[in-house]
Amino acid sequence: MRIRQDGPFKNGYNAITEMDGKHSDMLMDFGILMLNKDQKEINTENKERAYLLIQGEVVFEWENNKVTAKRVSCFDENPWCLHVPSEVEIKIISLADNTEIAVQKTDNEKTFPSKLYTPGECMSEERGKGTMNETSTRIVRTIFDKTNTENTNLVLGEVIDFPGRWSSYPPHHHPQPEIYFYKFYPENGFGYAELGEEVVKVRNNDTVTIAAGLTHPQATAPGYAMYYLWVIRHLEGNPYITPTFVEEHLWVTDKNAKIWPDK
User: Fold this and answer.
1) Which domains does the chain have, with CATH numbers?
2) Is the peptide bond before 113 cis (omega within 30 degrees of 0)?
3) How many angstroms separate the CA atoms of 67 and 250, rounded?
4) Would you say 23 and 209 are in contact if contact means Cβ atoms under 8 Å apart?
């Protein structure tokens, strides 16, 4: 389902999905926190939480730690993300106007070490390179998943799509719910998101909720770069590890595949 964001986000927290409210099938709270200079956010919620800096400058404080983080461009720079278990107090102090933070929360009775993921620690890879005539080459950043945070109930990452290209391709699906949140450069750009047999147009600041089992490849309009944040909710006894690809389209990933007009 596409959730359209008309106009800028308001100052403060903008709820997009809610575990006990709208779009509860996503099994997580997701929203955008907007802070101006000297504004603070303090949270001790009984949930696993992740605070990803999309743009701006902040001081992250947690468990006697205090770190300044700055991000000018989510397209060109790897992310900062503070990830904490239930009831750990966090404080975020904005050092600039229009600071934007993506907030992910979900239930989790397990504990794990709190961690601020820095840009240098983010696993960034160029996927699709050397295949499909480079039509699906993109940058995929994985911040945390089961490989580096065993007791998490979330998977969090980002994708940077080049103008006129595809991502999340070949088509794939998984039983765990997923959220995509979009940015475009320039901001008047657009792209298309597949949700099973439905295709929706997405613009800057839109969100798409991906229900269990739906395929979800993406396409970016020529002239516009597309960023999307992706967050997956593990299911009890069925964590997300790898997706299931649609078998009939897997042949395109072969580096030796003959793709028209290369016959």
Assistant:
1) 7-235+244-250 (2.60.120.10)
2) no
3) 44
4) yes
